[in-house]
Specification:
The complex is a heterodimer of chains A (564) and B (354).
Chain A lengths: L2 E7 L3 H13 L4 E5 L5 H10 L6 E3 L11 H16 L5 E6 L3 E2 L3 H9 L4 E3 L3 E2 L13 H4 L10 H13 L13 E2 L5 E3 H8 L4 H9 L8 H9 L2 E3 L4 E3 L15 H7 L3 E3 L6 H7 L13 H17 L24 E5 L1 H4 L3 H9 L2 E5 L14 E2 L3 E2 L2 H6 L1 H11 L5 E5 L8 H6 L3 E7 L3 H6 L4 H23 L6 E6 H6 L1 H12 L19 H10 L31
Parallel strand pairs in A: 1-2, 1-4, 2-3, 6-10, 11-12, 13-17, 13-18, 14-17, 18-19
Antiparallel strand pairs in A: 4-9, 5-12, 7-8, 15-16
Chain B lengths: L18 H24 L5 E4 L9 E6 L3 H13 L4 E7 L5 H6 L4 E6 L10 H12 L3 E4 L4 E4 L8 H10 L4 E8 L17 H4 L2 E2 L5 E4 L6 E4 L1 H6 L12 E7 L5 E2 L6 E2 L17 E5 L6 H11 L10 H8 L10 E2 L3 H7 L9
Parallel strand pairs in B: 2-3, 2-5, 3-4, 7-14
Antiparallel strand pairs in B: 1-4, 5-11, 6-14, 7-11, 8-15, 9-10, 12-13
Helix pairs in contact in B: 1-4, 8-9
Classes of the chains: A alpha/beta (564), B alpha/beta (354).
Chain lengths: 564, 354
């Protein structure tokens, strides 16, 4: 009889009864504390249901409310009873009604028998751990908390503010250093009795009565005074979510809990039949020398990370991030090309060949979405209807990138397209935008239309593109952006293309050997000059060389010989 | 600028908000809610009890209005029984295929019948509100249609009791779900389905991710549109495309009122089932089994009755297209596997649940 269990119960009595029987069958005496908030009749039923189990006692009942002294008082009186009534007990294990032993009781007894002087209690100073949620760190030891946080939140908050403003701090009793930790401990008789029989206990009790959440600090602090050997960890596996609420284990955590090798886990959902059936069955094969909560920790911290941050680039029914809180507007990097498909005749197939990415045409074309190969519907059932796309142009992009996770997307963009996403592209760190400014003039140059129409279009396109470039150059732009003027680009096209492809980081990219075919630009300079002559100054192309300017060349005359 | 248009686009300038206009808006919303409640109250006499069994004190209640649903009803009841629903409260709107009688025989179903107009009762919402006031106050109420099957992360192992307990513990009093339109491969009318089968075996395909969302300017709910109906039928008028967000599971209190179907609810704070920050809340998916082979007949009947939409005329082409037996499937459609799949695709999340 080396281990005794103190159990705090406030609901799910059928489960509590099951677990008590299990402890008792394993040879552990149990002292049960039932919350005073429980109705008399329910309490009596519970007592009656356990009447046939040996070595089970019920301690004096206290009113337990979360975050208040009641839980400590309950642990105190139940532990005193345990120490007084069961003199053989060497370790006292504090558990709750929703705790579930995962390993055979014998394992636990053997484990503790080998460590007869060790106290298992998580105990750390507040300054060193980031556990606390909600802003009360050290202040939980220096302010007073007479109001219930659950019932009188307003008064609670106001009174905290009031004390802060008037610097009404309490003094921590001499000789102790506040420590905190999990409220589920396992202490030796020596340490526990020293705490309970301390001549100064009255002082400490009075002090901790007004501390915030004393059940996480009372024993954790006092144990530092008496223990010969503290193992600062809890033998009870319990997980907390990012809000500081205890994580509840359901049936589907069976395998996870099995792998943990921990002795006891909490909190277990009372209806988790599979968990209770499996672990309360003595045959269960769970065996391992040392508890290993690390395995579970890794899985949980990953999940917690995902829960607090959400999945990048996912907008959905239960996630609508405010601007700036998206944790990524899109889910993965993609490339936007502006002006390339105008300058090169076969740019899209060339790019697909060179990089092995998925290359779309103008996704935002006014006539309809130009998916790769001009499919009418694309992954995720996005369809090529321009109206549907423009009804929510941003989410169209977000969805497209989300749907094709694991595969880089490239698409063309330009002033001919609908401009709803202009700013979103600029602000998205996942976007790689390469612009040849002024390339929109090339299709106009090639078209067979009246010059006055061309002039009007050119003016409009130039306005749109310059607006877009303003977005790209603004201080809010976070995309990786490269802008060439048309004139600069055609000076050294291969070098520029190489830079862009290198930045895309395509795997096993060879040197770009094969160049895309550039359209024939002879006469383009003159075309621009004609626009200028009409009073519309195209400036986005840069200083394009007016190659064959018609000048009135004078006939070359031979230099006259000078004859002296 | 931002993927969600927070203000009405047409209003141009930012809506000015101050203490007074906010208070005035809240006041108007309160009156709107009262009007809705009054309206339901006036319709309480339209309901005739057919059979009312003892309704258990604890557990989740399911509320539904239905008409001629013998095809689906058997599996529908099974699905929700498996989730651990305590009791069903169903309003039968003049079925002539024996739905009401079938339901009356079930020991965990209470049935009311009414011959009155479905449209006049705001598509059944008024009737259900009466029942919710009387039986649902203080407990979790799930309001779904006969063609909606609720799933959520781990729903095959953890029942609704576990879910609602989690919601309670986290201080949520409503739970959001996305309506996912399911469809068969090949022309709809030629799919194989007989009454009582699992409809998901027949209509097992869906559109993975072509959904767009914005914040509803009045009710503050997330307004989601998209999916197969959007893709096939509403390409030319995206603003009319069906709303897909729902708030089906609510910890009911007297005074709550659904506005249109379960898309929106008053008071507005209940629509807050999504997270505006970086996190995500737990959410589910309603598998919408509308496109079973009998959709053609049903649509023809609806066209006749004109009971289903606010402006039935506007939806004539839509119903017409449904009568013509369309093929909704295409090669990128995704086949439904399980809840994990929906989670991976990002159609629902688990938040802090499980």
């Amino acid at each position: 009889m080396s281990v005794g269990v103190v159990m705090l119960v406030h609901n799910a009595f059928d489960r509590a009864e099951q677990v008590v029987r299990h402890w008792s069958a394993g040879g552990c005496p149990v002292v049960i504390h039932v919350d005073k908030n429980v109705k008399r009749a329910a309490y009596d039923d519970f007592v009656r249901s356990l009447a046939d189990v040996p070595d089970v006692l019920f301690s004096k009942r206290h009113r337990c409310e979360w975050g208040t002294w009641g839980i400590v008082a309950a642990s105190q009186s139940a532990s005193s009873m345990m120490l007084a009534k069961f003199p053989d007990v060497r370790h006292v294990y504090l558990a709750s009604g929703s705790c579930l032993p995962l390993r055979p009781i014998k394992d636990l007894q053997a484990y503790l028998a080998k460590r007869p002087r060790t106290d298992f209690i998580e105990s750390a100073t507040t300054a060193d751990v980031p556990w606390t949620q909600g802003g009360l760190d050290f202040e939980r030891f220096t302010l007073r908390f007479p109001f219930s946080w659950r019932k009188n939140r307003l008064l609670f908050d106001r009174y905290v503010e009031f004390q802060r403003r008037f610097k009404m701090y309490r003094r921590v009793p001499e000789g102790i250093v506040p420590h905190m930790g999990s409220q589920w401990w396992c202490l030796t008789r020596q340490t526990l009795s020293a705490i309970l029989e301390d001549p100064d206990r009255k002082v400490y009790d009075t002090y901790f009565r007004r501390v915030w959440i004393p059940d996480e600090s009372y024993f954790q602090t006092l144990v530092r005074l008496y223990s010969q050997s503290i193992e600062s960890r809890s033998l009870t596996l319990s997980k907390f979510d990012y809000q500081g609420k205890p994580h509840i284990f359901y049936d589907d955590h069976l395998q996870l809990l099995r792998r943990s090798d921990c002795f006891v886990a909490r909190k277990i959902w009372p209806e988790a039949n599979e968990l209770y059936d499996n672990f309360l069955n003595e045959e269960n094969p769970l065996k391992g020398a040392e508890p290993n909560p690390g395995k579970i920790d890794r899985i949980f911290s990953k999940a917690v990370e995902r829960r607090t941050r959400g999945r990048a680039g996912l907008f959905m029914q239960s996630r609508l991030p405010r601007p700036g809180h998206e944790n990524g507007f899109t889910s993965s990097p993609y490339s936007v090309f502006e002006g390339f498909s105008e300058l090169f005749e076969d740019f899209e197939p060339w790019l697909a060949r060179m990089t092995g990415t998925r290359v779309h045409g103008h996704l935002y074309a006014k006539e309809g979405v130009e998916f790769e190969g001009r499919q009418t519907t694309f992954s995720g059932a996005l369809c090529d209807n321009a109206k549907l796309r423009d009804h929510h142009a941003q989410l169209f992009l977000v969805n497209l990138i989300w749907n094709t996770r694991g595969e880089r997307q490239c698409f063309q963009f330009g002033p001919n397209d609908s401009q709803h996403v202009s700013w979103d592209l600029a602000k998205d760190p996942n976007a790689q935008i390469s612009v040849i400014s002024g390339a929109w003039a090339i299709p106009l140059f090639q078209s067979n239309r009246n010059f006055s129409d061309i002039r009007a279009d050119a003016a409009e396109l130039q306005r749109l593109e310059s607006e877009h470039l303003n977005a790209l150059r603004s201080p809010w732009a976070k995309a990786r952006i490269r802008i060439w003027t048309l004139a600069d680009f055609i000076e050294t096209p291969m070098e520029a293309l190489q830079t862009v492809l290198d930045e895309m980081g395509a795997k096993n990219l060879r040197r770009v050997t094969e160049a895309p075919k550039m359209v024939d630009l002879s006469g383009f300079g003159q075309f621009l000059q004609n626009l200028k002559n009409q009073g519309m100054h195209p400036y986005l192309m840069g200083d394009f060389p007016t190659d064959n300017v018609p000048v009135n060349e004078r006939p070359t005359r031979r230099k006259p010989y000078l004859v002296r | 600028m931002f993927p969600f248009i927070l203000q009405d686009e047409n209003s141009g300038e930012q809506k000015k908000s101050n203490v007074f206009s906010d208070a005035w808006f809240s006041y108007r919303m309160r009156w709107k809610r009262r009007r809705l409640l009054l309206r339901s109250l006036r319709r309480r006499r339209e309901l005739n009890r057919l059979s009312v069994h003892g309704i258990p004190e604890v557990g989740v209640l399911v509320f539904a209005t239905m008409r001629n649903e013998m095809m689906r009803i058997e599996h529908w009841l099974e699905h929700y029984r498996a989730l651990g629903v305590a009791h069903f409260l169903i309003v039968d709107n003049a079925s002539d295929d024996g739905t009401a009688d079938y339901l009356a025989k079930q020991s965990d179903v209470s049935v009311w019948v009414t011959p009155n107009s479905y449209k006049d009762s705001r598509f059944g919402v008024d009737w259900l509100t009466c029942l919710q006031i009387k039986y649902g106050a203080g407990r979790w109420c799930l309001t779904v249609d006969a063609d909606e099957l609720l799933v959520y992360p781990d729903s095959d192992t953890s029942g609704l009791d576990a879910l609602t307990q989690h919601l309670d513990a986290n201080g949520h009093d409503a739970f959001g779900a996305l309506m996912l339109d399911m469809y068969p491969k090949g022309p709809v009318a030629q799919a194989q389905y007989s009454a009582g089968d699992d409809p998901i075996q027949t209509v097992s395909w869906f559109d993975a991710d072509n959904y767009r969302a914005k914040l509803h300017p009045v009710f503050g709910n997330l307004w989601i549109q998209g999916g197969v109906r959007d893709r096939v039928f509403f390409g030319s008028q995206p603003e009319r495309s069906p709303t897909l967000n729902k708030t089906p599971l609510v910890k009911w209190r007297k005074g709550y009122a659904y506005v249109t179907s379960t898309h929106q609810i008053l008071p507005r704070r209940l629509n807050d089932v999504f997270d505006l920050g970086e996190r995500a809340k737990v959410s589910g998916v309603l598998l919408h089994t509308k496109f079973l082979p009998n959709i053609g007949e049903k649509s023809a009947e609806e066209l006749e009755r004109g009971q289903h939409f606010e402006n039935s005329d506007l939806y004539q082409p839509y119903y017409g297209a449904l009568v013509d037996d369309p093929d909704l499937w295409f090669e990128k459609s995704v086949k439904y596997e399980d809840t994990t799949q929906l989670e991976t695709l990002g159609l629902m999340t688990r938040g802090t649940w499980g």
